[in-house]
User: Which sequence fits this backbone?
C-alpha cells in the first residue's frame, strides 16, 4: 500500500499536468474554430495498414530517443540543483564536431562509431565544463553562462559549417558537412521489428535507441546506487549539509556538469548516425530546450524521462497529420508549452503533498521554527528541491529534417 | 504596579508548542504604558518565540494577548502593526540602495495622485526624527549609514507606521558600546513621549541600565519579574539560569594524557580581513570534554567550521592525533576520526527530504556499513539505521521514513547515533541539545558522557551554561574570536561564567 501510494504521488503531478494541458489546448483549438476532438482523433490515428502503423511508432521512437537523451542530460544537473540550459549549445557543437571527425576518418565499423560517440561526448563535456569552471572559480551563475554559451556554440557551429567544415558544393541550398562514410553509420533495428512480427516501416528505427537505453540505465545506477550519486543527490537536497558531510561542492559541480555535457553530446547522434549522415543547416534544433521540458515532466527519473520523451515524440509526430486535417501544427507546440507550465505547477503541488504525507508519517510535523534557534535550513522554504528546478519557459520549436511546418520558430527563453 | 491605567501589553498564559518542543509555556507578561520593559533569558529560552507571538508571526496554542486592556487576536504582523505594535529586528531589513526616506515609507507609501509623495514622506520623517532625536536625514542612502544609524532607521520605520509599543530584539548585539549609549538615549526619548518599549536581551548589565522593569524567561516560561533598581546582576542571572534544574554533572574525571586535538594559533578571517577567530590555541585530550562558552556570534561557529575544514584558516595549525590536518579536506578529516554534531542540524546535519537510512550515510559516504566500494550498500545502511534507531532511541516508523517526519529530538538522536557509530577520535558537538525536548536532552548528555568515558575527545560548544559546566572538564570562554579565559568547571557557577562570557570587568560582549 505504501509503494502504491508512493507511485500514486509520483504519477500524480505529470498526469495532472497533461490533463490540464489537454484541457487548455482543447480550449485554444476551439477558439481558433477547430474541433478539439477531431484534433485528438487525428493525433491518435496511426494509419490503416500495419506498415503505416509501425511507421508511426518508429517515427515516435526516433524522435523520443534524442529527447530522452536531452532530458537525461538536463536531469543529471538538476539532481544537484544545477540548471544546465546549455544543453542546446552543447549538443549542436558536439554533433558538428562528431560529424566532421566521423567524415574525416575511415575505420572499421564499431571503432568508427565509437570514435564518433567519444568525440561527441568529449565536446559536449568540454562545453559544459566551461560553465562549471566559471561557476566554481568566478561564481558565475550556470544559468547565465550556459545561455550565453548557447549563442557562442551556435555561432561557432555556423562558422564551422559555412567555413572549414563545409562539405556540400558551393551554391547548394542546404549547407552540410561531408557525409560520414558507411562504416560510421549506426545500424537500424528494423530487423528486430520484423522478428517481433511487425510490418516493415518505411524508415529505419534508430539503433541508437539501444545506446539511449544503456545511458539511461547507467545514469540511473550512477545516481541511485553509487557513492558519487549519493554525493550528487545530497548536494541537490542540501548543499550545506553535503559540504558538512565532506562533499567537495566545487568538485561536484565540475563533475556533474561534465557528465551532463557528455550526455548532451549524444543528443544529435541518433539523427546523425541513423539518418542524416552529416550536420547541416537543416539539422534538428531545439532539442536541448525540449530536454528541459522532458526532464521536468519526468521528474528527473530516467524512467519518467523516457515516458516524457515518448509523449513529446508522439505529439511531434502528430504535427504532419494535423496539417493534413487542416488543423495548424502549432497545436502541438501549444500542448507542449502548456504541459511544461502545468508540470512546474503540478510538481510543486505534488512536492507539498509528499512532504505533508511524510510529515504525517510519524504524526509529528517538522520543527519549522523551533524556538527561534533552529530556524533556517531546509524548512518548507529552503533551497529549491532538485525535481522542480526554476520554472522554465521554453518555446519548443522543433525543426524536423523533413522541413515541414514552414519556418521553425525557436525561442530561447528560460525564466530562472 | 499601577493598576488604574490599562497595561500597554499583557500576555496571559501564552503557550506555544512546536513538534517535540514546548517553546513557550504559561507565559505571563505585564508591560505598563510608557516604560522600558526588558525580557531576559538565555539563548533558546523562548524569547524570540514569544516576541513572534506578540508580533503576530504565529498564533499561540493557548492564552490571551491584551493590548491596552482589550483582548486581541493577531493573524499576521499586519494586525499587530494596526494595533500599534512594531518590531525592530536584530538583523536589519533595509534596502541598501534606497534612501532613508524610501526605506521608511516602503510598504506604506504616502501617495498623491497615485505617485509617491516624497514631500509628505520627508515631512513626516523629519517630524519623527526631531521628536525622538533620531537625527535622520531622509535623503541619505542607507548604504552610507553606520550600524547605529541603520538601527535608528529601523526604529523610524516602526514609528512611521504609528507604533506605540516597540519590540527591540537584541538591539545591542550589533552595536559598539558608544552606539549602545546612543540607543539608550533614543529609548529614553521614546519613553518621554509616552511610547512603550519591550527590550529583549541577555546582557544583564545593559538591561539593568535601561529597563524600568524586567521579566525573566527560563526554559520557555516566565519565572519572575524583577525591579532593576533593587536586583543585582547576580540575582538576575540566578533567575535566568535557575538552580533547581537537573544538571548534566559528569562523574569522575576520565581525562588521559594523550592529546587528540591540538589547535595552535588558529585564526579565521572574515572577507574584510577582520579576525573572526583570533589566535585560538587549545588542547583536547582523550576522554576530555573541552567546553567553549561564549555569547553567540563570538567566533564559536567559525572555529567549529575551521576544525571541520569548512572554512579556510588564515593562520595556525590543527593537529589531530599526530597529523596536521589543516590542509585536509572535510571528507578526509571525517575519515580520520572527526565526528560532527552541527549547530544547525537542518542546515548541516540532515537531508530532510531523504529517508533516514540515507541520512545515516551522510557524512560517512566512504565507510562501511553505508557503502561497498563505489556503491551504496542499501541493505547495510538500512540495517545499521535500524540498529541506531534501537540503540539510540530514535522514534520513527522505519529506516525508510523521511527525516522531515521526525521531531527535533529524534533527528538529533539519529545524528548523535550516526556520529557515535563511526567511533570518532574527536567529536565536535555544537549545541548538541539545542531545540530538543528534555527527554532527548538527558539521553544525549548520557551518550556524551559514555563516549567520554571510552576515551573520546569532545569539543562542546554550547549556549546552555548548565550543560557547559556540567559536562566539561575544561572550559574556555570565547569573546570576539579569542579565548579570553580558561575556567575550572568544578568550582564555577553559571553567574561567574555568564560574567566572563559578556566580558564583564573588561568590555561588553559584542557580536
Assistant:
Amino acid at each position: 500500500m505504501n509503494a502504491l501510494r508512493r507511485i500514486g504521488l509520483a504519477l500524480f503531478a505529470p498526469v495532472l499536468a497533461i490533463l490540464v494541458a489537454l484541457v487548455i489546448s482543447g480550449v485554444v483549438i476551439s477558439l481558433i474554430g477547430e474541433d478539439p476532438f477531431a484534433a485528438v482523433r487525428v493525433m491518435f490515428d496511426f494509419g490503416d495498414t500495419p506498415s503505416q502503423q509501425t511507421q508511426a511508432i518508429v517515427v515516435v521512437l526516433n524522435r523520443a530517443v534524442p529527447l530522452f537523451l536531452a532530458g537525461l542530460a538536463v536531469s543529471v544537473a538538476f539532481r544537484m540543483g544545477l540548471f544546465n540550459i546549455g544543453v542546446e549549445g552543447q549538443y549542436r557543437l558536439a554533433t558538428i564536431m562528431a560529424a566532421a571527425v566521423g567524415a574525416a576518418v575511415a575505420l572499421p565499423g564499431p571503432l568508427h562509431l565509437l570514435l564518433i560517440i567519444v568525440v561527441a561526448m568529449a565536446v559536449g563535456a568540454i562545453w559544459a565544463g566551461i560553465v562549471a569552471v566559471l561557476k566554481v572559480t568566478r561564481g558565475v551563475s550556470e544559468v547565465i553562462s550556459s545561455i550565453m554559451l548557447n549563442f557562442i556554440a551556435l555561432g561557432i557551429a555556423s562558422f564551422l559549417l559555412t567555413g572549414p567544415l563545409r562539405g556540400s558544393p558551393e551554391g547548394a541550398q542546404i549547407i552540410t558537412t561531408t557525409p560520414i562514410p558507411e562504416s560510421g553509420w549506426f545500424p537500424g533495428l528494423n530487423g528486430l521489428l520484423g522478428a517481433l512480427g511487425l510490418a516493415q516501416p518505411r524508415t529505419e528505427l534508430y539503433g541508437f535507441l539501444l545506446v539511449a537505453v544503456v545511458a539511461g540505465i547507467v545514469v540511473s545506477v550512477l545516481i541511485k546506487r553509487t557513492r558519487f550519486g549519493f554525493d550528487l543527490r545530497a548536494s541537490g537536497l542540501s548543499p550545506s549539509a553535503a559540504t558538512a558531510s565532506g562533499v567537495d561542492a566545487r568538485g561536484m559541480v565540475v563533475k556533474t556538469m561534465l557528465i551532463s555535457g557528455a550526455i548532451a553530446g549524444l543528443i544529435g547522434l541518433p539523427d546523425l548516425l541513423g539518418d542524416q549522415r552529416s550536420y547541416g543547416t537543416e539539422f534538428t534544433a531545439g532539442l536541448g530546450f525540449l530536454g528541459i521540458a522532458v526532464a521536468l515532466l519526468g521528474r528527473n527519473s530516467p524512467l519518467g524521462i523516457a515516458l516524457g520523451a515518448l509523449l513529446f515524440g508522439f505529439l511531434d509526430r502528430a504535427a504532419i497529420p494535423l496539417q493534413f486535417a487542416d488543423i495548424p501544427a502549432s497545436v502541438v507546440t501549444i500542448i507542449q508549452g502548456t504541459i511544461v507550465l502545468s508540470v512546474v505547477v503540478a510538481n510543486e503541488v505534488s512536492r507539498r503533498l509528499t512532504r505533508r504525507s511524510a510529515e504525517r508519517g510519524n504524526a509529528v510535523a517538522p520543527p519549522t521554527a523551533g524556538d527561534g534557534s533552529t530556524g533556517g535550513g531546509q524548512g518548507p522554504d529552503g533551497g529549491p528541491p532538485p525535481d522542480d528546478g526554476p520554472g522554465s519557459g521554453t518555446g519548443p520549436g522543433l525543426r524536423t529534417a523533413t522541413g515541414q511546418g514552414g519556418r521553425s520558430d525557436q525561442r530561447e527563453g528560460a525564466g530562472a | 504596579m499601577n493598576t488604574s491605567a490599562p497595561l500597554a501589553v499583557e500576555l496571559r498564559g501564552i503557550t506555544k508548542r512546536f513538534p517535540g518542543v514546548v517553546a513557550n509555556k504559561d507565559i505571563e507578561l505585564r508591560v505598563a504604558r510608557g516604560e522600558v520593559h526588558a525580557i531576559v533569558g538565555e539563548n533558546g529560552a523562548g524569547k524570540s518565540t514569544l516576541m513572534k507571538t506578540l508580533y503576530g508571526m504565529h498564533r499561540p496554542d493557548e492564552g490571551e494577548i491584551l493590548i491596552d486592556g482589550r483582548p486581541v487576536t493577531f493573524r499576521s504582523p499586519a494586525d499587530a502593526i494596526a494595533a500599534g505594535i512594531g518590531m525592530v529586528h536584530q538583523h536589519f531589513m533595509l534596502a541598501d540602495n534606497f534612501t532613508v526616506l524610501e526605506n521608511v515609507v516602503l510598504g506604506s507609501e504616502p501617495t498623491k495622485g497615485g505617485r509617491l509623495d516624497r514631500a509628505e514622506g520627508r515631512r513626516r520623517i523629519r517630524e519623527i526624527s526631531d521628536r525622538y532625536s533620531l537625527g535622520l536625514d531622509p535623503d541619505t542612502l542607507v548604504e552610507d549609514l553606520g550600524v547605529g544609524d541603520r538601527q535608528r532607521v529601523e526604529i523610524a520605520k516602526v514609528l512611521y507606521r504609528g507604533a506605540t509599543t516597540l519590540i527591540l530584539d537584541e538591539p545591542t548585539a550589533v552595536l559598539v558600546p558608544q552606539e549602545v549609549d546612543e540607543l539608550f538615549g533614543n529609548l529614553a526619548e521614546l519613553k518621554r513621549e509616552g511610547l512603550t518599549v519591550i527590550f529583549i536581551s541577555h546582557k544583564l548589565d545593559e538591561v539593568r541600565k535601561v529597563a524600568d522593569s524586567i521579566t525573566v524567561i527560563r526554559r520557555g516560561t516566565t519565572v519572575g519579574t524583577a525591579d532593576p533598581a533593587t536586583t543585582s546582576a547576580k540575582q538576575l542571572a540566578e533567575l535566568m539560569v535557575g538552580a533547581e534544574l537537573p544538571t548534566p554533572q559528569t562523574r569522575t574525571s576520565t581525562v588521559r594524557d594523550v592529546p587528540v586535538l591540538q589547535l595552535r594559533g588558529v585564526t579565521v578571517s572574515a572577507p574584510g580581513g577582520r579576525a573572526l577567530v583570533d589566535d585560538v590555541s587549545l588542547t583536547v585530550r582523550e576522554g576530555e570534554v573541552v567546553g567553549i562558552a561564549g555569547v553567540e556570534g563570538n567566533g564559536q561557529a567559525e572555529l567549529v567550521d575551521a576544525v571541520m575544514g569548512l572554512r579556510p584558516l588564515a593562520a595556525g595549525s590543527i593537529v589531530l592525533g599526530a597529523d596536521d590536518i589543516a590542509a585536509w579536506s572535510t571528507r578526509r578529516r571525517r575519515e580520520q576520526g572527526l565526528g560532527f554534531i552541527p549547530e544547525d542540524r537542518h542546515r548541516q546535519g540532515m537531508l530532510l527530504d531523504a529517508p533516514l537510512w540515507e541520512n545515516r550515510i551522510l557524512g560517512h559516504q566512504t565507510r562501511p556499513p553505508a557503502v561497498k566500494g563505489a556503491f551504496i550498500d542499501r541493505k547495510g545502511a538500512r540495517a545499521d539505521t535500524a540498529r541506531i534507531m534501537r540503540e539510540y532511541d530514535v522514534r520513527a516508523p522505519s529506516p525508510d521514513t523521511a527525516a522531515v517526519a521526525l521531531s527535533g529530538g529524534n533527528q538529533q538522536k539519529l545524528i548523535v547515533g550516526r556520529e557515535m557509530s563511526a567511533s570518532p577520535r574527536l567529536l565536535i558537538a555544537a549545541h548538541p541539545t539545542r531545540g530538543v525536548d528534555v527527554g532527548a536532552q538527558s539521553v544525549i548528555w548520557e551518550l556524551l558522557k559514555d563516549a567520554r568515558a571510552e576515551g573520546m575527545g569532545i569539543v562542546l560548544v554550547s549556549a546552555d551554561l548548565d550543560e557547559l559546566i556540567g559536562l566539561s572538564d575544561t572550559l574556555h570562554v570565547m569573546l570576539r574570536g579569542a579565548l579570553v579565559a580558561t575556567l575550572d568547571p568544578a568550582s564555577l557557577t553559571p553567574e561567574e561564567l555568564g560574567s566572563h562570557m559578556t566580558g564583564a570587568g573588561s568590555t561588553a560582549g559584542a557580536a
Chain A touches chain B at residues 224-231, 233-234, 237-238, 240-248, 355, 358-362, 364-374, 376-379, 382, 385 (CB under 8 Å). The mean pLDDT of chain A is 80. Residues 330-360 of chain A form the longest helix (31 residues).
